[in-house]
Known about the structure:
Elements: E1 10-19, E2 22-25, E3 32-37, H1 40-53, E4 60-65, H2 67-71
Antiparallel strand pairs: 1-2, 1-3, 1-4
Amino acid sequence: xxxxxxxxxxxxxxxxxxxxxxxxxxxxxxxxxxxxxxxxxxxxxxxxxxxxxxxxxxxxxxxxxxxxxxxxxxxxxxxx
Length: 80
């Protein structure tokens, strides 16, 4: 029996920054949460799509956060 692929959750979000040089949002109420994705590849596709849509705005940036690293920091597949 094949073992299931591990679920490595990733969050994609972004918005307008106060400066292109730092990751500080101009208005946190306007952060665009694109979604949570089951793997890096699907998160990267969503990130690329949003980044391409905002390519003309130097102050708008999107990020990928590796949620699985927060949920399972030691990588053993167990919570806590």
